[in-house]
Amino acid sequence: MSVRAELTVPEDVITPGGSITAHLRVWNESRIVDAYRLRLLGPPAGWPDIDAQLGRLPVYPGNHEKINIPLTLPRDSELAPGRLTFAVRVASVEDPAAVAVPEAVINVGEFHDLAVETVRSRVGGALWSSNLIVLENTGNTTTAVRLRVAPEADDALVRPKLRRARLTLEPGEQARISIMTRVTNPKFTGAATPWKIGVTAGWDDGQERTVSYVHRQHPLVPKPVLKALIAVTAVLITLVTLWFSPVGGKKPEAKTETAKGPTQQEEVKEAEKKAEDKKKQDEEKKKKDEEKKKEDEKKAEAEKGALEKKPFQKSLALDTKKNKSSDSYTVAKGYRLAIKTVKMSASGPDNATVFLKAGSEQLQSTNVKNIKDYTPAAPRSLKEGQKLTVQVDCPVNAPNPNPSPSGSPSAPPAATCNVTAEVVGDLIPLKGPNAEPETPPASS
Q: How is the beta sheet containing 387-393 ordered, strand by strand?
């Protein structure tokens, strides 16, 4: 006795977190009333809130029955986009050997999501502090993340800076980015001042997540230390006053010591000299601090408008059928292009020749039959204004030996060549704080 069953699913693309209903039909082609045990097979059987055991389905002879199976796709980074195949095992109760396992496919879509949090919600320091932001790609596809950090108050006396502002995360991948916060205007004494700092992470489809933490700006001299200094100073002043005060109405006389040590007057002069030297040192230090502050502000202003390094990926395509036998990319102004690899693919006659050039220099020449990727031993650089060119020499096919009705050989058919070059590398600024030394060209 055989079992016939059919499993169908709508062809819509379902984003994880969404729901879909599968339809199962079971035919009873025997002569007796039978029931069929139903069990989910494949990934849905392990999803939360879904029971793999679907129970029994009774069917009368010569008839068929239909049941709906609701499925909710978990919103999980491990559920990759694409075609997801599953099945239902249909087993006869009367004849356990009679089994059918119909299959169906769910079209799983992509979704982007990001978990963002700071390691510490509160940090502090008189001159600087550090914190970490933890990112996790909770979507099911690769996500390019952009980070921004800034104090919420316009008059904040702190300047936060991220170690990295752009990164790419695979599904389920985590990253920890450090944040350095520098105090732009330290204060000598007083109460601690809290500054709220926001960190925003944005990704491909325009979504954003924002978290914040607090930097407490402490004074250079804490209140307990200041109180202790005031008390010590008051005691010293009292002792000096008593030392030089007249006793019994007599004029104090300078006490002398033996030749083993300085006199009391010499000690006083020495103390005055040390105080004067310390005052000069404090003034010089203050002057240097002001100069350093101006230099830091000037440097930060320069960094604000500087060009940044960014990943580069571009596809060059040729199609001689469209009268396009070459394609090129010109390096943008202010940058140099460091080529990591050029992924080549081509179709056409075997003797068609493909050329890859950097400016006037030929990097690779090969026929379509032996086409291969170009990967230099070290990144190959092109400066601004230079071109990376892909060109194809597509020969004409051999003439048709069968003559045309007029008696002359027919014209050879035009050959068609298609070439695609996927260029991967980095665009690096030529000048500014983000510039990098150029690696000498290496043979490929």
A: 326-330, 387-393, 353-358, 361-367
The pTM assigned to this predicted structure is 0.48
Which tokens belong to 122? Answer: 């509160």
Same domain, 42 and 129: no
Name which of 146-150, 213-217, 224-228, 344-348 the model is least confident about.
224-228
- For residue 342, the number of C-alpha atoms closer than 13 Å in the C-beta half-sphere is 31
d(CA 434, CA 303): 8
Torsion sign (Cα): 266, 267, 270, 271: negative
Q: How many angstroms separate the CA atoms of 282 and 276, rounded?
A: 10
Indicate the burial class of 180 (C-beta count within 10 angstroms; 0-12, 13-18, 19 or more): middle
193 assigned to some structural domain: yes
Domain of residue 360 covers 310-397+413-429
Report, as an integer, the average pLDDT of 229-255. 73
Asked if residue 349 and residue 417 are part of one domain, the reply reads yes
Say yes or no: 424 and 342 in one domain: yes
In a domain, 134, yes or no: yes
- According to DSSP, the residues that pair with 86 across neighbouring strands are 104
- H-only helix segments in 183-317: 223-244, 264-304
Query: In this structure, which long-range contacts are made by residues 363-372, counting pairs with CB atoms below 8 Å and at least 24 apart in sequence?
Result: 363/444, 364/444, 368/417, 371/344, 371/345, 371/346, 372/344
Sign of CA dihedral 249, 251, 256, 262: positive
Amino acid at 284: E
Domain limit, last residue, from 59, 90, 108: 108
